[in-house]
Automatic annotation (TrEMBL):
Entry's Gene Ontology cellular component terms: cytoplasm
Top-level taxon in the UniProt lineage: Eukaryota
Keyword annotations from UniProtKB, A to Z: SH3 domain
All residue ranges annotated as the SH3 domain in the record: 93-156, 189-252
Source species of the chain: Rhinolophus ferrumequinum
UniProt-annotated stretches for the region Disordered: 166-188
Name this protein carries in UniProt: Rho guanine nucleotide exchange factor 37
Pfam families for this protein: SH3_2, SH3_9
Cross-referenced SMART domains: SH3
A GO MF term: guanyl-nucleotide exchange factor activity
CDD domains in UniProt: SH3_ARHGEF37_C1 (cd11799), SH3_ARHGEF37_C2 (cd11941)
Calcium found in the keyword field: no
UniProt entry tagged with the keyword Oxidoreductase: no
Length: 262
């Protein structure tokens, strides 16, 4: 028993010495930290001031970032959608119009299926359960819910604003997009060809997809309503509408060989 008591006393002494050594090293490390001599209230105030300064810098950075943001990209309107936009503008005003940024496939009975570039009017920025990620919109012919993340505020063209109040109620949404019909070939000057400058992905059966640099045959340099922003073209045997700004006339390469004087 004496041996056991001696062993326990020795172990306790070693533990005490080790604890004192650790405490001394911890005090030395703490002394090297900044503001270690401050009282707790002073340190708390210093911490609050530092956090406030960081928050101010973050808000300033956010404001500067928003100032230098590029202007929002305006998607071209679907062919024949001008009347729909004018009707929605007349009924709801410019502040309620939004443009679909990507195709939407409705999954529920109250969800809408929309194409990228389509214009809708915002009715309510939440659903019946208070979910702000689903918005209730009006297409001019149907009402339903769409994901809020796939909508962006539509910037009304000044010409459309002048027509506000001069249009009647829109027709059914099925009649808003014209059916492409064959049209005579336009007169193209000799030695030029029309090519696609940018790629374009068709969003409906009335449009046709393009690849950059792809040769294009222009059938009509406007849509059925005379809008020059859309052209009826033929690509790889398929006909459809594409944005006119995506096309350009490029000179054809000169043929090989000698040409005899006439």
């Amino acid at each position: 028993m004496q041996w056991l008591g001696q062993i326990l006393r020795t172990f306790m002494a070693l533990q005490r010495d080790l604890a004192e050594q650790v405490l001394q090293k911890a005090k030395g490390s703490l002394a090297q930290l900044p503001h270690c001599q401050l009282s707790e209230p002073a340190f708390r105030k210093l911490l609050e001031d530092a956090l406030g300064q960081a928050g101010h810098q973050l808000r300033s950075f956010q404001e500067n970032f928003e100032k230098v943001l590029p202007p929002p990209t305006i998607q071209p309107l679907l062919p024949g959608a001008e009347r729909q936009v004018q009707a929605l503008l007349s009924k709801y005003g410019p502040g309620k119009l939004y443009q679909v940024t990507s195709n939407i496939s409705g999954a529920g009975t109250l969800d809408l299926t929309l194409l990228r570039g389509q214009i809708v009017a915002l009715l309510q920025n939440k659903d019946t359960k208070g979910n702000s990620t689903r918005w209730l919109v009006d297409t001019g012919g149907h009402r339903g819910y769409v994901p809020a993340g796939k909508l962006e505020l539509y910037h009304v063209v000044p010409g459309e604003e002048k027509l506000r109040g001069q249009v009647g109620p829109p027709e059914d949404a099925r009649h808003l997009t014209p059916e492409p019909t064959p049209a005579p070939f336009p007169t193209v000057s000799t030695g030029t060809q029309v090519v696609a400058v940018y790629p374009f992905v068709a969003r409906s059966s009335h449009e046709v997809s393009l690849q950059a640099g792809q040769p294009v045959t222009v059938l009509e340099a406007q849509d059925k309503k005379g809008n020059p922003e859309w052209s009826l073209v033929e690509v790889n045997g398929q006909r459809g509408y594409v944005p006119s700004g995506f096309l350009a006339r490029a000179p054809s390469p000169a043929p090989w060989g000698w040409s005899l004087p006439s």
